[in-house]
Amino acid sequence: MNDRKQRRRRRSSNGFVDILNGLLSLLVLGLLVAGGVAIYGATHFYGDGPLTADTTFRVEAGSGLTSIAPRLEEQGLISNQYIFQIGSRVSELSGAIKQGDFQIPAGASMVDILTELTTGNPIRYAVVIPEGWTSWEAIQRLNDDSNIVGEITSLPAEGSILPGSYDYVPGDTRQSVLDKMQSAMTTELAAVWEGRAADLPIDTPEQLLVLASIVEKETGVASERPEVAAVFVNRLREGMRLQSDPTIIYGITKGQSTLGRGLRRSEIDAQTPYNTYQIDGLPPTPIANPGIDALKAVANPDTHDYLYFVAKGASPSEGHVFAETYAEHQKNVAQYRRITAEAAQAEKDAEATRQELEAEQAGAAPAPQ
Asked: What is the distance between the alpha carbons of residues 312 and 307, in angstroms, rounded to a whole number?
């Protein structure tokens, strides 16, 4: 009897040990498999990636880890989207993915790509609006940029855009970029108006903006702006008409094209709101979008008694010559006409020489067979 009980105890004990050994074996096997998977995943996450050439990868607005991982695999930047997602979550960087275009080098590992998308700087994109452009020209540039989306539903007011460079992220709307431009002008105009000279013959920031746009269109030489601005300020003080050709041109084109020729006598004589040869004071709106320097030039113009100016020569880069009296101005105008006439004659002579040489070459060339 006692022997049978002892045998039962031994069998029971052996069965428990067998079960325990089996569980331990499964646990070890599971650990080995898990370790192998972990090593496999780590090798792919930290090892060189499949990308064979540098490329650009775009992260759209609102994109997250689960949406970009499949695209990374589809575009050949990573070998396995699931390893990328798991590795990203383990690294605790997945919650800070930025929007924009990123430069990814050839062979970049998954962790390299993740680091670039979370801590790197997106490729810089910008819209540049030159000083003196009209609002119509600015909108054309916005519309031509394929990296931004949406439509501008109405043409912004002339003078409401501050020229400059405006960064954006691909996928931003054209309206949002325009809003930045207009907000910048509002801010800058207020600051310039606050720091203006006390005795200006203009009463509002809007008038300052109008006059600054005229100064901007009258000279492309930055150093001349305060001097040109002072001429117009002096004229306003004296009750003289501004007599600015760019205002007439704007009245004809509305800023949506270039005139491409000189003004006609009939256009100078025409009674229009923008013809400052015919109206007193300022035109009703700006004729362009002036830059900061033009705004500051009008707010704090030079101190002099000049009432007239004319171009020094045929090139706008040569600037202008100034005069206090009409008689002196007439002499300057006569000099300008002589210079431009000589330049025109020189161009005619050069063209005639070119034609003579071309004719000689054509005569010397063998006849076609």
From this structure: 16
Q: Residue 19: its pLDDT value, please? A: 63
Which uninterrupted H or E stretch holds 7? Answer: helix 2-46
**Rounded to an integer, what distance in angstroms lies between the CA atom of residue 288 and that of residue 283?**
12
Question: Is the CB of residue 244 less than 8 Å from the CB of residue 225?
Answer: no
Which pTM value belongs to this model? 0.76
For residue 338, what are the CA distances in angstroms to 100, 316, 344, 345?
A: 56, 16, 10, 10
Q: Backbone phi, then psi, for 104, in 5-degree steps?
A: -110, 120
How many angstroms separate the CA atoms of 126 and 164, rounded?
Answer: 10
Q: Which of 150, 190, 188, 187 is nearest to 168 (CA)?
A: 150
Helix (H, G, I), strand (E, B) or coil at 154: coil
For the stretch 296-333, pLDDT in tens is 999 999 999 999 999 887 777 888 999 999 999 999 99
* Chain centroid to CA 33: 54
Q: What is the pLDDT of residue 261?
A: 82
In terms of DSSP bridges, do strands 125-129 and 100-104 run parallel, antiparallel, or are they unpaired? unpaired
- How large is the average pLDDT for residues 20-38? 51
Q: Which fold has domain 55-119?
A: Dna Ligase; domain 1 (3.30.1490)
pLDDT for 44 equals: 74
Q: How crowded is residue 35: how many other Cβ atoms within 10 Å of its Cβ?
A: 10
* CB < 8 Å & 24+ apart, contacts of 234-237: 234/304, 234/305, 234/306, 234/307, 235/307, 236/201, 236/202, 236/281, 237/201
Per-domain boundaries in the chain = 55-119, 125-186, 198-345
Residue 364 pLDDT: 58
Q: Which residue has the tokens 């001429």?
A: 231
What pLDDT score was predicted for residue 228?
96
Neighbours of 92 (CB within 10 A): 8
